[in-house]
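On clarity, I found the account of how folds are encoded harder to follow than it need be. What matters is that the chain and its backbone geometry are given together, residue for residue. I therefore recommend that a typical entry be quoted early in the introduction. An entry of this sort, consisting of the sequence and the corresponding backbone structure tokens, reads as follows:
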Amino acid sequence: MSYKFSRRNRLKKKQYFQLFNKINNKYIDKYMIFIYQYTKDISQLGLIIKKKYVPSSVCRNFYKRLVREYFRLHKDKIKLKVIIIAKKNLYKCNKWEIKKCLQKFWQYCMSMQTLE
């Protein structure tokens, strides 16, 4: 069990993001949209936080760090490929609300995985 967030855990290429447009597994929360797919390989994460929605680069990077940290600590529980898209009102929330949102998503994925 490795707690590193290595390059293998990142989704960066445009082709991966385009493939996820065809996937119907979505979880929509107040602050973020999660598009996910279960895998047997490693867990991977892609983040989309638009400059239009979060104008400050400091805040954008802070949100990215929070999400990556949460993913890093929980990636071994479920094997997922996830793209997280920030919504307009992400700029208004604090780190506790983001963590709560991520926790709800993770619990949802765990419950859905047991059903399959």
